[in-house]
Design a protein that fits this description.
Elements: H1 3-30, H2 38-54, H3 59-83, H4 88-107, E1 120-122, E2 137-139, H5 140-158, H6 160-170, H7 172-177, H8 182-208, H9 220-230, H10 235-257, H11 264-268, H12 270-283, H13 286-290
Helix pairs in contact: 1-5, 1-8, 1-9, 1-10, 2-3, 2-4, 2-8, 2-9, 3-4, 3-8, 5-6, 9-10, 9-12, 10-12
Amino acid sequence: MNAIEYIIAGMLAAATPFLLAALGEMVTERAGVINLGVEGMMALGASLAFIIVHNGGGHLAAFLAAALGSMALSLVFAFIVLGLRANQVATGLAIGIFGQGLSALFGKAYESMTVKALPKIEIPWISDLAIMGGLFRQDIIVWLTLVATLAIGIAFARSKAGLILRAVGENPKAARAIGYPVIAIRVAAIAFGGAMAGFAGAYASTVYTPLWADGMIAGRGWIAIALVVFGTWLTGRIFMGACLFGAVSLMGLAAQTTGIALPSQLLSSLPYLVTILALGVISSNRRLLKLNSIASLGETFER
């Protein structure tokens, strides 16, 4: 397998943690709330999932526990920003740090331990194609993530629930005036975002890299938040952005296998450099920055 085949085969799996967390954050932001605690929620989900799989609980129980644990942390965030009307940015940062602390505490006894990852599922005949065949050999979580991406995109474009969520994000006072429970809808969106961050962390620790190490999320949560802006709050663009970042994250390993003499630190920093570059390009273009942006994002809602 050459470098190009390696990147194509692993691109979707590498993109899955980014995509799961970014989809959850997109739903949260569409409701008018910005949650900067995604990194901590992913870390908490990663530790809970790893502990359960390592102790024989199975991947299904691990993913459910990760989703519930991260959702509980997101509801703490919701209570503070919606119930107490605290600043969303400061609260998100605090919750993120708290989640990372809990992750380090729970995972301390499991440092450097490994678990068994999920098997790959192949699409007959197509997976045997040259170069592109590896793209169709993925684990079940990758396939389910693709289905979830499509479902969320359709929900926002065509369902009543998607339209209500967008209305709450754009003008919460008008939405409340016509009878929609703004606070309840925002709590549900935050809880969904927390659960998706938990799924992302669980995938990272038990499937993609089935090894526990403190700090293993390594900024994926921040990249997921950046992906929402990069994708201008649209599901299809977020998916393409996640694939791009997934491919970039594999380029370092691919470069090392081809014998390219570049420092390993530079190669491992490629995803973060691309994130900074992408956000710089978007921020320099006011029209692009305002594209599909949410009018009430980050604003405190007064009943």
